[in-house]
Structures are given as C-alpha cells and as structure tokens.
Specification:
The protein is an alpha/beta fold. The chain is built from 13 helices and 13 strands. The chain binds adenosine-5'-diphosphate (ADP) and magnesium ion. Magnesium ion binds next to helix 3. This is Carbonate dehydratase.
C-alpha cells in the first residue's frame, strides 16, 4: 500500500466517525470475514431501565412489607456496583439497608452482607439475622422457584434481562471466597427485570455487514433467550450467549480456526481481551477507555453503520493499490 492511499483512507475514516489507530488497521479492516458484536452497549444502547422487581413467595408467605424489605436489600447491594443493571436498579429504588463486605463476581453478579435481612424463607426485619445477599445471573443459583422462573422466562423471551437475588448465611464459607461458578447453595427469592433498547441503527448496520459478505455473530454474557430475542430484532442468526468475561477471547480464537479473519466490536472492560485477540478490534466510542486501548479502530458515536462504512472504504482504498 502506498502511504498516500493510506492517509487518504485514514482521513476519510475520521469523516465517517471512525478513528484509525495505524495504517495496518486498514488492511485488517479490508480482510475481515466474520464480525462479532457484543450485545450490551454495542448492539443495544447499554442503558438499562428497571421494569419490575418482585419477591412473589415472600409476599405470599409473609407480607408486602417483607417483599419491599428484601428488594430494599437488593437495591442496597447494587448501589455498590457499577454494572449497567445495578445502575438501573439504583435509578429506580434507593437502598437503605446497611451493607458490608461487597464483592463483585465477574460475569455472575455481586454479593454483600446485609444487616437484618434474615435467611431464605424468612421475613427481613429488625430481629432478623445479618446474611449475605447474592444478586445476579441464574448461574449463581441452584434453585429458582416456579413463580420466579415464570417471570424471568416471560421477560427473557422479550429480550429483557432477568436477574435474581437470594440469601445465604454470612458464615457460609463458600460464598465469595472461591469462584462462584462452583457454588450450589442459594435459592432465588427475588427477580428483577431490566430492559435495554436496541440502537435504532443496529439493524441497518447488520444488513450492510451482510452485503459486504461478512458473517455476523452476537456474543454476550447475557442468557440465551434474551440474546436470541435481540438477535431476531436486528437480523443476526448466529448467537453465542452466556459467555463468561474471561472466555470471550477464547470464542474469538476458535472463530479464527483455519485462518478466518475475525473482527470484534465491543464497549466494555470485559471485551478488551477479545478486542485484542481479534484480527481487527473495533471499540464503541461511548464505551470504556480499556476497550478503546485494546482496539485498532474506534467508532466515535457508537453507530455501527460507521463500522460497515469503514470496511467498505478500506476495500475501496486498498483495493485500488494492490
Ligand atoms: P454482558 O455485558 O455481556 O451482559 P457481564 O459479563 O457484565 O456481561 O454480565 C453477565 C451477566 O452477569 C449479566 O447479564 C447479569 O446477569 C450478571 N451480572 C453481572 N453483574 C451484575 C450485577 N451487578 N447485578 C446483577 N447482575 C449482574
Ligand atoms: Mg457490553
């Protein structure tokens, strides 16, 4: 490639709303065959809003006040987390319970000890014991009662995300001390449904990727059902869901089998290793610095159509100087 053509290409990239790290990035852009899109914050806006929060069995067996107190505990724990789901809960509900020993379990959720919250099945209250409250994905719980499962399944089939909460004794040595992937003690008692919205430009960007001959893959830590619902909305057939943060780069590596050139678009801290592993990493400009630093290109506005334009441009630019 001649330096002039590359500079022209890079300048046009800036006009399209794409920042290009270096000249090599344009060649990588031209050659991609598969484009992997992170779901939350990339295909969707990544701003969650709370839809419902309930603890149906606690309400039925105790009282509405007991249900409210348990949900207050959930909000109090989530007030310590910076996850978009936690933010949605914090925006809707102020947590007033005392919390200590907060721990984040990447790809799973959060845990903290909450004062007077009581144990599974009990009503929280001034006489109740302190306990650990787990808040997060289904994989944190070994039992999800029917009333809760129904609420979650209904929400997920609409592309929403359900998260669960349950209580375990604070002296339960397994909680938070090892990896939660192996824990199997908590019963889900509360369910919180949050929704995110698909970016209005995502479906059109995905159509353009297809027209450029790319295979499009949706990659997410979120559950299978919600992932498929979002994929259907934007026209993606291939979904890889329930991927733990540490495993996203491995997914990219396996897609690269046989020399396939893979691009990855992501926004989060969790996405950085996958962005670095990809032949072409594209960061969404509205995401984290860590994601941008791991990437070759940055889509300034977060509009995925700019990624399609960059691929088309790199083919035109470099196509003429081979
Ligand atoms: P993604 O950004 O792809 O959804 P994450 O790895 O951040 O993936 O999270 C995966 C899943 O873990 C979330 O969908 C959610 O179910 C759960 N989770 C993580 N952090 C929290 C949190 N603070 N509160 C509730 N759930 C959480
Ligand atoms: Mg994300």
């Amino acid at each position: 490639a001649t330096p002039l053509a590359i500079m022209v290409g890079t300048g046009r990239g800036a006009q399209l709303g794409v920042l290009v790290r270096g000249p090599e990035a344009l060649e990588d852009t031209r050659d991609v065959q598969v484009i992997v899109l992170d779901k939350t914050g990339t295909v969707t806006e990544g701003r969650m809003a709370l839809v419902t929060a309930s603890a149906p069995d606690i309400a039925a067996q105790h009282s509405d006040d007991a249900e409210a107190a348990l949900l207050d505990a959930v909000a109090s724990v989530e007030a310590r987390s910076e996850h978009p789901i936690a933010q949605a809960i914090a925006d809707a509900r102020e947590g007033r319970k005392r919390v200590k020993g907060f721990r984040n379990v990447p790809g799973h959720g959060v845990i903290a000890t909450v004062q007077h919250v009581g144990l599974a099945g009990e009503a929280p209250g001034p006489d109740a014991a302190n306990a650990d409250v787990l808040v997060g994905a289904r994989r944190m719980f070994d039992e999800v009662p029917d009333a809760i499962e129904q609420i979650a399944a209904e929400a997920e089939s609409q592309g929403r995300t359900a998260i669960f909460a349950g209580r375990v004794p604070s002296d339960d040595g397994g909680v938070g001390t090892g990896t939660l992937a192996t824990r199997t003690r908590a019963v889900a008692e509360a369910v919180v449904v949050v929704s995110d919205t698909v970016k209005p430009t995502s479906a059109s960007a995905i159509r353009s990727f297809r027209e450029l001959g790319l295979e499009v893959v949706l990659l997410t830590g979120d559950n299978e059902r919600a992932a498929h619902a979002v994929a259907d909305q934007v026209g993606i057939d291939r979904v890889i869901a329930e991927v733990l943060p540490g495993d996203k780069a491995d997914v990219i590596r396996s897609l690269q089998d046989g020399g396939t050139r893979v691009a990855m678009v992501g926004d989060g801290i969790n996405d950085a290793p996958a962005l670095a592993q990809a032949d072409l990493g594209l960061a969404v400009g509205t995401g984290t610095d860590v994601a941008r630093e791991a990437s070759d290109l940055t889509i300034v506005s977060g509009d995925l159509r700019a990624a399609a334009d960059a691929i088309a441009l790199s083919r035109r630019t470099l196509g003429t100087i081979r």
